[in-house]
Amino acid sequence: MQQEIQTRRLPWYRTVYRGKVLLALYALLLSVFALLAWWVHGHPVLAIDVVITHEFQEEQSPWLRALMLAISFIGSAPLLAAGLVLITALLLWLVRLRLEALVLLGNCLSSELLNRTVKVVVARPRPLPTLVEVLQAAHGASFPSGHVMAYVAYWGLLFSYALILFEGRSWWRILLLLVAGFFIVMVGPSRIYLGDHWASDVLGGYLLGGLWLSLWLLLYLRLRARGLLASRRRPPVSHSGSDVKRAALPTSSRSRRLS
């Protein structure tokens, strides 16, 4: 096994190159987010945000409003969201995916703390009812979107687990990918449509949430490669009755039968 790992490892120069590419990508994402945060801190209301919200809210059909409310419902109920994360982590632990359970808890909790910290620093107010239609009033600061970061942390990690841990075209794997992808993509538009966030808040949530998720995935893959909290597989048990009886017989009895 050790020899196979050594033969499959990349040369050091290729490893360094990939590491530099990842660092450059993370630095770019962080720079864009920092620039956006600095800009909205000094300009709480952007004309482009108002225009985008008006475009989203042009269609006011009951079914669309109900859909947008349903998409944001989990994030709007803190106890429900916390319970969902805890239940998912417990299920992962019970199926012997212990590292995955701990990473899920750590990612979701740290993402929430990071979001609250940035909101305090940026201190951007929510959209005003005088500028846009606020269909669901929210409290606290606006940048970055807490719903978006929470959904990227939870659903994004489940989406990644489905890609990393399992293969094939099983219906439950495809269903998990579709459901997770749906919530990740649609939570942003739902926050704009409901008037809870500006488009720049949503963009900031995707940028910071995606960057934070990437860092946790890197940590997870490194710990998984080292075999931390790896599930121990039980040796296969033979269900053949003759094999069980033969194993239970003393050596002398088996030798007399053979003779």
UniProtKB/TrEMBL annotation:
Keywords: Membrane, Transmembrane, Transmembrane helix. It comes from Thermogemmatispora argillosa. Residues 233-259 are annotated as: Disordered. The keyword Protease does not apply. This is Phosphatidic acid phosphatase type 2/haloperoxidase domain-containing protein. Residues 101-217 form the Phosphatidic acid phosphatase type 2/haloperoxidase domain. The chain crosses the membrane at residues 21-40, 66-94, 101-118, 148-167, 174-194, 206-223. It comes from the Bacteria. The keyword Repeat does not apply. Pfam families: PAP2.
